[in-house]
Design goal:
alpha+beta, Polyamine Oxidase, Chain A, domain 2, about 35% helix, about 20% strand, about 500 residues, seven-stranded mixed sheet, binds flavin-adenine dinucleotide, protoporphyrinogen ix oxidase, domain 3, five-stranded parallel sheet, FAD/NAD(P)-binding domain
């Protein structure tokens, strides 16, 4: 894939830079460095580029195996896509919306929220989900002082939501969404990492509902989807899948002369007076500038020899997330029984999945590719329920498939059997989703302070930026742009 960029391609020159990690943050960092004139080498441990923005082929369909959409609360991802010549590929999801499976049955998920937090507790969909007492409690938010939920002792998503809108909003709306997106209980997650800007929004707008409404308004139109965007649609995608962004970035980097090396697992990093030395297997790479674009535990593991202060700031590993993708021939699913998919509330009996994405119902381009009657279903397993452990028991592929068939049949209310399956696949993401435990935001500030003191070092990625492409793209570009071109990087 080729991008129509305005900037001329540069043959490499200037100081050398090494980027460790070829996920989206590493690729973007490499592009920023190349744009600034550095001779860049990217080292990726696996054989594929993009990290969590991966792809796989199931039943002959080229599908996203990790991230499949991006948040439109900012223009960060859409801007990058446009720079890479992908403007006309940005699409809105089907306007059907998603559902939530609660212990007392399925319900449509209100479309006007952020992380399930409603902009208006009296919206008919929200009111139906919360019940009268729940809606009354949620609307108390409007009269509470802005200090409630914004003080320093309120640090988790659940403490914020509970304080302002009550238990019903937390259990029936927020927990399923947070579980689906972050694979963790909202009581464990740092609100400022998971819902950036929300607490500042409460202070500015006076209530949580108003802060959510303001974020939704900002999201409207910022995704730049060419299709008919659902009112305030919070996400957008790319025709062909999010993995096309990686293809475009890799093509762009090649054209700029960036050296892209797969199968290079960085084992050691040493700070020398003249720069950094990275060892990957038998090879060594010397550079004045180093970008570490890995998950948190791996980044700290690599850097702690040079920066021992980082050891105490090592984040807990993220949960193991297993994704089961099934391509089924089942025309009964043409009617999109649960819209674009369904999130599962934690206490829902009999269902092990935390979310099901009906990909062919969500993305029209994929439905066209699959053809009538053929459907792509993706179920995710694994959830961090308690600090320091938890999550599902690890199942083998066959057991996961059996669970997925059972869960999909219940969730979609259409019996699905082995005989309906054209092809299937399991992808496991071990520790790839950062676990932004309470206090994470503070730790991020400390990590950045330690790294800023080391000349020529940038550390980027979802564990520092916050989970999700919108956060990672914006933060990586900001970090690299803030770095001086002479090799000493200020973070
Ligand atoms: C299953 C799943 C679904 C997701 N869905 C969405 C979504 O729909 N929308 C959204 O916005 N976000 C989504 N996300 C989150 C989003 O994909 C991530 O926030 C983002 O891609 C993280 O990028 P990164 O560059 O920080 O890290 P990564 O993608 O983890 O990249 C790190 C890279 O470093 C490599 N590496 C590791 N160790 C070494 C080493 N020692 N030497 C060299 N290379 C090494 C890895 O192989 C990897 O390629 C999802 C994540 C997952 C796991």
């Amino acid at each position: 894939m080729r991008g129509g960029r305005p900037t001329p391609k540069a043959t490499v020159a200037g100081p050398a830079a090494v980027v460790v990690g070829g996920g989206i943050s590493g690729l973007i960092a490499a592009r920023e460095l190349a744009l600034a004139g550095s001779a860049v080498t990217v080292l990726e441990a696996s054989q594929a580029w993009g990290g969590c923005v991966g792809s796989h082929v199931v039943a002959g369909l080229y599908l996203d195996s990790g991230a499949e959409s991006f948040a439109t609360r900012s223009t960060a991802v859409a801007d990058l896509a446009r720079e890479l010549g992908l403007a006309d590929r940005i699409v809105a999801p089907h306007p059907g919306g998603a559902w939530v499976q609660l212990p007392d049955g399925p319900q449509e998920l209100p479309k006007t929220g952020v992380l399930g937090i409603p902009a208006n507790p009296w919206d008919p969909e929200v009111r139906r989900s919360l019940g009268l007492a729940g809606a009354i409690r949620a609307s108390l938010d409007r009269w509470l002082p802005a200090s409630v939920g914004t003080s320093s002792d309120v640090t988790s998503v659940s403490s914020l939501v509970r304080a302002r809108m009550g238990k019903k909003v937390l259990e029936r709306l927020v927990s399923p969404v947070v579980g689906g997106v972050h694979s963790a209980d909202p009581a464990l997650l740092d609100v400022d990492m998971v819902a950036p800007g929300l607490r500042a929004g409460i202070r500015a707008q006076g209530s949580l509902a108003a802060a959510v409404a303001a974020q939704r308004k900002a999201a409207k139109g910022s995704g730049g989807a060419s299709g008919p965007a659902k009112a305030g649609s919070a996400v957008a995608g790319l025709r062909g899948g999010m993995n096309t962004l990686v293809d475009a970035l890799v093509a762009d980097l090649r054209e700029r002369g960036v050296k892209l090396l797969t199968g290079q697992h960085a084992d050691d990093v040493v700070k020398a007076p003249e720069g950094w030395r990275v060892t990957a297997g038998n090879a060594t790479y010397d550079a004045g500038r180093l970008v570490v674009a890995l998950d948190g535990p791996a980044a700290v593991g690599l850097l702690e020899k040079s920066l021992p202060e980082l050891s105490s700031l090592r984040p807990a590993p993220g949960p193991l997330v297993s994704l089961v993708t099934m391509v089924v021939d089942l025309p009964q699913l043409d009617g999109r029984p649960r819209g674009t998919g369904i999130l599962v509330a934690p206490e829902t009996p009999g269902i092990r999945a935390k979310a099901l994405t009906h990909a062919t119902a969500k993305w029209d381009w994929l439905a066209d590719e699959a053809g009538p009657g053929t459907h792509v279903l993706r179920l995710s397993y694994g959830r961090r329920e308690e600090a320091g452990g938890g999550g599902d028991v690890v199942l083998d592929d066959e057991s996961l498939l059996a669970a997925a068939l059972e869960d999909a049949s219940t969730l979609l209310t259409v019996p699905i059997s082995q005989a309906d399956i054209v092809d299937w696949d399991v992808v496991r993401w071990a520790g790839a989703l950062p676990f932004a435990a309470v206090g994470h935001k503070q730790r991020v500030a400390q990590v950045r302070q330690v790294c800023a003191a080391a000349d020529g070092l940038s550390v980027v990625g979802g564990w520092l930026a916050g989970n999700g492409l919108a956060a990672v793209v914006a933060d990586t570009r900001a970090q690299l742009k803030a770095a001086p071109a002479d090799g000493s990087l200020a973070l």
